[in-house]
């Protein structure tokens, strides 16, 4: 059974809250390691989305935020926000602190004028980083499938063809196409769960 994005998000949020509880209550280094491995690439992407090409700053920001996660874990309130919301609030504040220290952030801004000029039609950096991460994992998963299965998935999901159209194009019985799609999705799901 393929899980929906919302059920995967719920599972991930529950897992992250459990890890935060272990870090907060028991100072569990292994739980922190899992949080680090989850958030470090996302924080790095967040920073690079704000300042492309500044990899050193991105690495410093990720490290600074994750040190704050370790030191301030006891202040996290799971009833108020998801772990990712709390972590990215720390990231936003750390980035503003960095910009202030470097003289590139001024507090002489008229908030009314600022909000009138903001046009934000795109996804936020966290969503972009998550999507990129999922796309990379799916792409790597497709590479590990047998060619017959990845070819069928490409026809059906990337080219938008029906099972019948894929069967006609590849000169295969419709049942074969359907079973290859099902097997490929099952293998892909197992790969993505790792």
Element order: H for helix, E for strand: HHHHHHHHH
| Number of structural units classed as domains | 2
CATH superfamily of the largest domain: RNA polymerase sigma factor, region 2, helix turn helix motif
CATH architecture of the largest domain: Orthogonal Bundle
Low-pLDDT sequence parts? none
Shape estimate = elongated
Briefly, what is this?
The chain is mainly alpha-helical.
How is this structure best described in words?
This protein has two domains: 5-104, RNA polymerase sigma factor, region 2, helix turn helix motif (Rna Polymerase Sigma Factor, Chain: A, Orthogonal Bundle), CATH 1.10.1740; 142-193, Arc Repressor Mutant, subunit A. Helix content is 76%, strand content 0%. It has nine helices and no strands. The protein is elongated, with a radius of gyration of 22 Å. The model has no long low-confidence stretch (mean pLDDT 81).
Descriptive keywords:
2 domains; 194 residues; mainly alpha; Arc Repressor Mutant, subunit A; 9 helices; transcription regulation; Rna Polymerase Sigma Factor, Chain: A
Per-chain topology:
Blueprint: H1 5-26, H2 29-50, H3 55-72, H4 83-101, H5 111-117, H6 125-144, H7 147-158, H8 163-170, H9 174-193
């Amino acid at each position: 059974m393929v899980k929906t994005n919302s059920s995967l998000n719920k599972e991930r949020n529950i897992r992250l809250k459990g890890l935060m509880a272990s870090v907060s209550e028991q100072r569990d280094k292994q739980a922190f390691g899992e949080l680090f491995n989850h958030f470090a690439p996302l924080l790095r992407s967040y920073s690079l989305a704000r300042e492309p090409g500044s990899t050193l700053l991105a690495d410093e920001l990720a490290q600074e935020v994750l040190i704050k996660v370790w030191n301030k874990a006891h202040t996290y309130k799971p009833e108020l926000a998801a772990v990712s919301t709390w972590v990215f609030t720390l990231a936003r504040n750390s980035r503003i602190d960095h910009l202030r220290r470097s003289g590139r952030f001024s507090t002489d801004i008229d908030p009314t004028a600022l909000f009138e000029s903001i046009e934000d039609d795109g996804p936020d950096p966290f969503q972009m980083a998550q999507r990129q991460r999922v796309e990379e994992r799916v792409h790597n998963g497709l590479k590990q499938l047998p060619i017959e299965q990845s070819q069928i998935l490409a026809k059906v999901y990337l080219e938008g063809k029906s099972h019948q159209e894929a069967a006609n194009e590849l000169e295969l019985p419709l049942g074969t196409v359907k079973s290859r799609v099902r097997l490929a999705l099952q293998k892909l799901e197992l790969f993505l769960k790792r």
